[in-house]
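User: Teach me something about this protein's shape.
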Amino acid sequence: MTEKPRIRVKRVKHGRLKLEDGTVIVQRVAIVDARPVKVGSPFGVDFDLVVISGISPHPSKKVVEELKDKPMLEPGKQPPNAWRTIKIQEKEPALEEAEYFDEEVGRYRIRVEIEPLMASLNTDAKTVKGEPIYVVRWAPKISWKKV
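Assistant: First, the predicted structure itself:
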């Protein structure tokens, strides 16, 4: 492959959630790709973005103790349908900013921020590393400006 990447990461900020059960979750968002889909929009260009996110839970001792006798989830298997919603007590959103450049449309600064909305813990299984399984639902806030 000889095609140059269209985006360059300029800023990364990890998000953090503190849950009611004492667990802290670190959250990350990344812009994988950006493609202009419409030139001449009210925002200069409209972009189609490929965005991914991931979490790294740091469970409280209480949660680890609660799940110590639960089975480990086999790779490739879905977790059992045994979820408990956990209230988010504190949150800081994750964000990434990248610069897009294309000779046809110019240079843009793209920003993606994800706001955590809900968190849930699986109460009947743990990961192969013996850790609790958490899921976080989030909403994206996406913006860009010509630079």
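Now, about its shape. The helical segments are 61-66. The beta strands are 7-13, 15-19, 24-41, 44-58, 83-86, 88-92, 94-102, 106-126, 132-146. If you'd like, I can walk through any region in more detail.
User: That's plenty for now, thanks!
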